[in-house]
Amino acid sequence: MFEPTTPALAGKGFGARQRWKMLLSLGLGVAGAGYAAYRFYNAHQKKLVQVEEEEDIIKQQLQGQFEEVKEEQEEGKEEQEEQGEEEEEQQQQVLPPLPEADRDWKSYYYRNWDHVLPPPTLQLASSLPRIPRQPHKTKWSGVCSLHCYGETLTALLRLVYRQDGGFNVDHLALILSAAGQGFLRETGASIYDISLLIAQTGIPFEPSSIPAFLFPSDVVLEPQHRVYAHGLSITYGSAQTLPLTQEPWTEEAIAQGLCRDSTRDLFEKVMKFRESLCKVIDAGPIAVTLNPQRHYYDIRSDDEPYRLKANGEYIMIKLPNGNEIKAGHVVTVYGYACPGGDVRSLLLNYQENTVRAPARNQDEAAVPQDQVNPGRHLMDPDAFYGYYTPGGLKNIKFTLK
């Protein structure tokens, strides 16, 4: 038989059911929250993986672009280096001047006066007083001008008097006289300075080198005598040279009118100057003035001429006021050669006079300075800016002092 349920027992059953429902709801809530947290964490991890993959892709793309840019830069650098080498080669070459179609060229081949020119010797700049605490420097410059004037004068007098030797200029006396009278300066000696020296004091010669027939028979030259030549003059000429950068001189360019009239006119003037220069050298050696670039003293072979470079660095000298000017130099040109038969292929033979003369090889470059033979070399006719030669040789007078 069923027992009747009391109110107390009924209350216990109701409370147990409510607790169970609460616990079930709480458990379901915790599980739901855990599942939601799991879903959130899982989505976050997937996002991180996706971001990392995207970053890797971006890195790979950037690396690829960087490699491409690097390769392009390297290719560009190689092209620039190749272009620079080509430009350097072009700068070292003389522009190939070709004729206009209707130009008749005079024939010139070669001339050489080495048999009457004194052998190469060092200029006697060391004979001048040195600057205190700077033994390699002196307050006087321009000795090369006097040295070359003496060489050309000696050679020309030998030609005039038909002598194989003799007429040696006393270089030491000439230099000391020029320095004592203020014709040698820190910036050098000009052609005008030398002409003043000639007019005032004359040119000293070694007495033993003067032929006896130039003096009366009763005059006996003694070692203590000093012979001076008077009545001399100087002839100076400015050079006409091709520019270092110019339009092409090809016949096709001229035929097509690519070269301006001024270019053709300049070309014609330069070639006429070269022809006149050859005529001057046909009469004897000359002294030429130039502003050497630094490669002037580089080692070069016997058949390699000195040429200016378009971007070549000039040797500079610093003045007392702080300004800088191009260094000047003078050498003796004693001959020429035109391998092509006319002045388009003109090269000049010159004689050096400095201890820094261009050596032919490393062994020669290592020779001590006091044993250097300045030597004879080749020069392009566009490398100098002027020339001078002694004049009045037929009216010269020799006096004894």
Mean pLDDT: 78
Instruction: Please name the CATH architecture.
Output: Alpha-Beta Complex
Biggest sheet architecture: 7 strands, antiparallel
Number of domains: 1
CATH fold title? Cathepsin B, Chain A
- pLDDT under 50 segments (min length 5)? 90-99
CATH class: Alpha Beta
Quaternary structure annotation:
single chain
Query: What is the global morphology?
Result: rod-shaped
Instruction: Please tally the helical runs, counting DSSP H or I stretches of 4 or more residues.
Output: 7
Radius of gyration: 45 Å
- What fraction of residues sit in β-strands? 5-15%
Please tally the β strands and state the result.
12
Provide the succession of SSEs: HEHHHEEEHHEEEEEHEEE
The structure class reads: alpha+beta
Structural features, described:
The structure is a single chain. The chain has 401 residues and is of the alpha+beta class. The protein has one domain: Cysteine proteinases (Cathepsin B, Chain A). Helix content is 39%, strand content 14%. The chain is built from seven helices and twelve strands. The chain has helices spanning 7-92, 143-160, 171-180, 191-201, 251-255, 261-282, 362-365, and strands spanning 110-112, 203-205, 227-230, 233-238, 286-290, 316-318, 324-326, 329-337, 347-351, 376-379, 386-391, 397-400. Strands 1, 4, 5, 8, 9, 10 and 11 form a seven-stranded antiparallel beta sheet that branches. Strand 6 and strand 7 (324-326) form a beta hairpin. The longest helix has 86 residues, at 7-92. Mean pLDDT is 78; it is low at 90-99.
